[in-house]
Amino acid sequence: MTSMTGVPKQGFRLSQLIYDTRYRSLTIQVVVFMLFMLGAAWLVDNTIRNLQALGKDFNFGFLTYRSGYDIGQTLIPYTNDSSHARAALIGLLNTLLISSLGCIAATVIGVFVGVLRLSKNWLVARLMTVYVEVFRNVPVLLWILIILAIFTEVMPAPNAYRVTDQMLAEGVQPAATMVLFDTIAPTNRYTAIPSIGFSRSLGGFDTSFMPISFNFLAMVAALGLGIFFNRRVLATAKAVQEATGDRPVTWWKSILLLVGPLLAVMIALGFHLNLPALKGFNFAGGLNVTNAFVVLWLALSLYTGAFIAEIVRAGVLAISNGQTEAAFALGLRPGRTMNLVILPQALRVIIPPLISQFLNLTKNSSLAIAVGYMDLRGTLGGITLNQTGRELECILLMMLIYLAISLVISGVMNVYNNSVKLKER
Amino acid sequence: MKKSVFLGTLAAAGLTAGLAAASTLDDVKARGELNCGVNTGLVGFAAPDANGNWSGFDVAICKAVAAAVLGDASKVKYVPTSGQTRFTALASGEVDVLARNSTWTFSRDTDLKLDFVGVNYYDGQGFMVRKDLGVSSAKELEGATICIQTGTTTELNLADFFKSNNMNYQPIAIDSNAEGEQQYLAGACDAYTTDASGLAATRAAFADPENHIILPEIISKEPLGPAVRHGDNQWGDIVRWTLNALIAAEEYGVTSANLEELSKGTTNPEINRLLGTEGDLGAMTGLDKDWAKRAIAVSGNYGEIFAATIGESTPIGLARGLNGQWTQGGLLYSPPFR
Amino acid sequence: MSPTQSDSIAFVRSEMLPQKPAPVSEAGAIRWLRENLFSSPLNTLLTLIGAYVVYWLVTHSLPWLSHSVWTAGSVSECRQIITDTWGADATGACWAVIRERWSQFIFGFYPWQMVWRPVLAFVLLLVAIAPVLFSALPRKMLTFSLIYPLLAIWLLWGGSAWTELVVLAGFVLGWATYVALSKGSTLIAVIAAVLVPILWWKFAAAPTTEVLQNVISLSIPKVSSSDFGGFLLAVTLGVGGIVMSLPLGIVLALGRQSDMFLVKSLSVGFIEFIRGVPLITLLFVASLLLNYFLPPGTNFDIILRVMILVTLFAAAYIAEVIRGGLAALPRGQYEAADALGLDYWKAQRLIILPQALKISIPGIVSTFIGMFKDTTLVVFVGLFDPLKGVPDFVRADFNWKGIYWEPFIFTGAIFFIFNFSMSRYSMYLERKLQRDHH
C-alpha cells in the first residue's frame, strides 16, 4: 500500500472555478447573473435616455385624470367623467367576464363534440370532424369577423320589431317578433333580455367599487343557507347508504332546500322580470347584451371548443379498451360507463392541456378590438393609450395585468389538477 | 436575460441600425427617399391600387414634399400607420412626415411632441343616418346607437356632445372604416359618426346613397394636417411651405397646365418668387430655387389635387366649403412668399 | 350402418346449397344505414339534426355561390350583372375582386416583375424543409437546409449576395476556430468560436462586402420590407419566427432543465412571462416600445421589429415543446451518456438533443401552425396581413367598397389548406414515432 500522503495539498486555484465541478456551476451562475444585470441595466438606461430625449417622464398620474370617453358595456358604474384607472378596471372586468364565460362554453362544446366525434353515428361523427378541422385550421380572427358579419347581416334591426298604429290598422305584422313568450329580442346590435327587478327594496350601500343592494345580499344568504342544509341531507343519505346499502331518495329534498329559501326571499322582496320594450331607437326596460360580447364569446368558445374536443377525444382514446369492457361486464350501460368509468380517468389526461387552452382563450380575448368589445386592451391599451400618449406606462401595466391573470388561472387549474391526479402509492 | 443579449447582439451586428442625425433634411437626402406615414386605407385620402401605387389627397402632400426635397415625386416610401401607431411612428423617426388625416389638437402639438405644420383639410365631425329614421337633427338622437371608430378624437367629441346636450347614447366601437360601413348598412347602429369628409366618401359608395342623409350638425373642429417631429424647425419649415406653395399656387392661378409658361417669368413678383425666377427663397430652407415648382408640377396646385382626389367630380363628391381659398370665402390662407 | 337406416335416408345432398342473400334489413345500404345512422332513438335524433344542419347550410350558401361573378371592374358592376342574370332579388358572390387583387392577397406590394423571387424562395423552402420532415431523404440535403435561411433572405430582400455570403463566412470562421482550438481547452475554443464571428461581423464584414461587391457584382434589386404583405408576410413572419426561435428555444429548454438555480429561474421567468401575455401586447411592444428599449436613435423597420418579438414569442413555446421532448427521453439515455464519460455539452449534442428534437418535430409543427395563424394579428400594428389588412385597403378602393365575404372565404380557404395539410403531417409523424418507439 502506498501512502496517501503523496497527494499534494494545494490551496484554492482560480482554474478550479472552471474545471472543478464543485465551483463551476457557481461560476456560470455568477457570469449569467452579471450578464443579466448588464442587459437589464442597458435596457433601463436606454429607456431613460429615450424618455429624456422625448421630454417625457414615467409616471402613472394620468390614470387619475378624467377619461372622457364612453364604454358600451360596463359591469360596474362608469361615466365619461370617471378616471382612466376606472376605465381600465371596466376593461379588466370585461376581459374577465368574456374569459370565464368563454372557458365554460368552450369546455361544454369541447366535451360534447369530443364525445360525439367518437360516436358510431357516421353522419354526426363526420360533421364533428369537419367542425373541428375547419375551426382549428383557420385563424380565430377570421371566425370573429365572420360571426360578427353573420350577426349584423342576419339578425333584424330593433326597428324591425316596431308596430306602428298604421300597421295595426292595416293588420300588417312587424318584420320580426320577440321569441320565448315575448321576453327576448335578438337584434343586430344586442340581444334584449328581461332584467330582474324587485318591487320592495331593502336599501343598500355604496362602495367605491360598485353599489351593493341588500336584496342581492339577502338572496345570496338564502342560497348559501340552502346549500348548507342540502349538504347535511346528502351527508346523512351517504351515511344511511353505507350502513344499509340502500340510498334514500333525496332529489326532492335537495331541490326544495336549494330553491325553497331563495324563492321565499325573492317573493318576499317582490321579484319580477322587467321585459324589454322598444322605446325610441332601442329596446329599454330589460337588459341589452351587446352583440360585441355575444359574437366574441361565440367565436372564442367555438374556436377553443374545437381544440378542447381534440383533447377530450385523445383523453378518451387513451383509456384502454379493457376499462370499457370491464364496465360492460359489470352491467353498466354505455352512458354510465362514460360518466362513471371513462371520463373520470380521461380527466387526468385532459386537464393539463386544458389549462393551456384556457390560457389561450384568455389571451385571445384581447382580439376584442375586432368587434369593438371594450376589454382591457380596448380601454387601457387602446383609447387611454391613444388619448394620453403614455404608451410605455399603458402597455407595461397591461402586460402585467394579463400576466397576473394567466398566473392565477394556471395556479388554480394546477391545484385542481393535483387534486384529480392519480395518487400513486 | 436572453432577450437583452439577443437584442444586444442584434444591435451590435448593426442590423439596419442608423443613428438619426440632427437634421431630417440631411437624412432624407442621404436616404434618397422620403418616409411618409399614411392611412392604412381611406378612400380618397390614401389607398393603394391594384399595382400597389398609392394615391389620394394625403398622398399628394407626400409626393409634393418628395418632389421639393429630392426632385422626384416617386421617391416616397409609404408607411401605413394605424390610429394607434401613427404618432409613435413619427416620434421614433420611422416616418419623416405624417400625412394621415390627423387632427391638430393642443395636447398632440405639445404633450405628444408633434409639430403640425398647417391644415390641408378643415373637417368636422358629423353624423350620418338613414332617411327613413325620420331624424333631421343630431339633437333628436336621444337613446340612439352610434357607430364610432375607436382610437380617434371622435370618441371624445361624441361623449362631449351628448353630455352637453344632456342626452344618452349607446356607443358601438369599431376598428376600421370598412367595418363601420358594414355595421351601419346592416342597421347595427342608427347613426355613424366620423369626420364629415369620411361620411361623404362612405355615403357615396353606398348602393343607395339617396336613402342616407348627413345631419347638419358639425359637432367639432377637425383641422387635419401634416405633422412632423418637434424640434427640427428646418424640416418643419420645408413641409409647411410646401403645403403653402400648393395653396398659394391656386390663389395666384398657377396650375400644372401653365406652370412651365409661368416659370419663364411673369409680371407678378409673388409668382416669380414662388417659382424661383426671382430671389432665392429655396436656399433659405436648404433647398434649391425650383423646389416649389417641382412640388406644384407633381399633381398641380391645391385646387387641382382636391378636384382630382376628393372633389365634386369624383365619386366622393366633397364640396370645397371651408376648404376654399380665402378669396372665395374659405379658410385657406397662405402666408405671403416674400 | 344398418340397412334400415340407410333406407330411411332417401337422399343425401352431396354438394353445398348456394348461399342465400342476407335478409334485406341486414345487408347493403340498409344495413349500413341502420348500423351507422339509426342504431338507437338517440342516434336517429342526432342523424336528423345533422341532416338538417347540412340541408340548412347548403340551401343558404349554394344560391350565393352559384351566382358567382368572375369578371367585373367594381362591386356595383357585379351587382348589376347578378341582377341582370338571375333577377332582382338574387344575391351572388363577386369573385372579381379576387381575380383583380389576388396578387396583393398573396404578395402584398412586392414588385410584380420580381415576384419569381418569393415563389422561388417558397419552393426552395419546401426543398430545405423536406429532409427535416421526411427521414427517408438523404441526410446530405441538411446542408442545404442550413444555408437556406441566408439564401431566402437574399432572395426576398435582394441586394448584394455578398452580404449573406460574408455572414455565412462568419459562421464558417467560428466553426473553424472551434475545430482548431478544441485540441486544447474546450472552454477557450467555445469562447473564441463565439467571439471571432462577432468581431468578423462587426468590423470586417462591411468592408469585405464592399470590396467583393466591387470585384464581382452579385446584386439583385432590393425590395423594401414595407412592400411585404398578404400571405408573403404571414409566411415570412411564421417561418422566420420559428426558424430563428429554434436555437433560443433549445437554450431556454436546457436552461429550464438545468440544476443551476439562477439559470433555471431566469429561463422559467422568461418562458412564463412570454406565455402569460397575449401576442398582441408583444406586437404593441414591437411597434410602440421597442424604440424606447434600444439606444437612442436606433431605428429599423417595423417588420424586423415584429419579427424580433415574434421570435421571442415563438421561442417560449418552442422551449416548452423541446422540454417535453427532453422529458420524454428515457432516463437511461442520460445515464448512458454519463457512463460514457461525456461532459454536459457533448452528451447534449451527441445523445440527448438529436433524439429529443426528433420527437419534438410534431410539437414544433403544431407551434408553427399556431404562429402562422397568429401572424394575422400584425394588422393591429398597421401591417398588411392577408385576413384584414389587405381586404381593408382593397375596400378603401372606391370600386371595391362594401365587398366583405369573398376575401374572407379566399384567405380562409388558403389558411385552411396550409394548416390542415401541416396538421395531418404532424399526426402522421406522431403515429410513426409511436411505432418506432415500440
Q: Give the domain tally of chain B.
A: 2
Distance between the termini of chain A: 49 Å
Q: Report the CATH topology name of one domain in chain A.
A: MetI-like fold
Classify the secondary structure makeup of chain B into a structural class: alpha/beta
| Strand numbers in spatial order across the main sheet of chain A | 1-2-9
Range of helix content of chain A: 55-70%
Distance between the termini of chain B: 58 Å
Order of helices and strands of chain A: HHHHHHEEEEEHHEEEEHHHHH
CATH H level of one domain in chain A: which superfamily? MetI-like
The CATH topology of the largest domain in chain B corresponds to: D-Maltodextrin-Binding Protein, domain 2
CATH class category name of one domain in chain A: Mainly Alpha
CATH superfamily membership of the largest domain in chain B: Periplasmic binding protein-like II
CATH architecture of the largest domain in chain B: 3-Layer(aba) Sandwich
Q: Please tally the helical runs of chain B, counting DSSP H or I stretches of 4 or more residues.
A: 14
Largest sheet of chain B: 6 strands, mixed
Backbone CA Rg of chain A: 30 Å
Structural notes for this entry:
The complex is a heterotrimer of chains A (about 425), B (about 350) and C (about 450). In chain A, strand 1 and strand 2 (about 190-195) form a beta hairpin. Chain A contains 13 helices and nine strands. In chain A, the strands form four sheets. A three-stranded antiparallel sheet of chain A has the order 1-2-9. A two-stranded antiparallel sheet of chain A has the order 3-6. By secondary structure, chain A is mainly α. Among the domains of chain A are: about 70-150 and about 290-305 and about 315-380 and about 415-425, MetI-like (MetI-like fold), CATH 1.10.3720; about 210-270. The mean pLDDT of chain A is about 85. Chain B is an alpha/beta fold. Chain B has helices at about 1-15, 25-30, 55-70, 85-90, 105-110, 155-165, 175-185, 195-205, 235-250, 260, 270-275, 280-285, 290-300, 300-310, and strands spanning about 35-40, 45-50, 55, 75-80, 95-105, 115, 120-125, 125-130, 145-150, 170-175, 190-195, 210-215, 220-230. Chain B contains 14 helices and 13 strands. Chain B has two domains: about 20-120 and about 225-330, Periplasmic binding protein-like II (D-Maltodextrin-Binding Protein, domain 2, 3-Layer(aba) Sandwich); about 125-220, D-Maltodextrin-Binding Protein, domain 2 (3-Layer(aba) Sandwich), CATH 3.40.190.10. In chain B, the strands form three sheets. In chain B, strands 1, 4, 5, 6, 7 and 13 form a six-stranded mixed sheet that branches. A five-stranded mixed sheet of chain B has the order 10-9-11-8-12. A two-stranded antiparallel ribbon of chain B has the order 2-3. In chain B, helix 3 (about 55-70) packs antiparallel against helix 13 (about 290-300) and helix 9 (about 235-250) crosses helix 13 (about 290-300). In chain B, strand 9, helix 6 (about 155-165) and strand 10 form a beta-alpha-beta unit. Chain B is globular, with a radius of gyration of 22 Å. Chain C has three domains: about 40-100, no CATH class; about 160-220, no CATH class; about 225-435, MetI-like (MetI-like fold), CATH 1.10.3720. In chain C, the strands form two sheets. Chain C has a two-stranded parallel ribbon with strand order 1-2. Chain C has a two-stranded antiparallel sheet with strand order 3-4. In chain C, helix 15 (about 345-375) runs antiparallel to helix 17. Chain C is globular and about 100 Å long. The two termini of chain C are about 60 Å apart. In chain C, about 40% of the residues are buried. Chains in contact: A-B, A-C, B-C. The interface between A and C is large, with 52 and 57 residues.
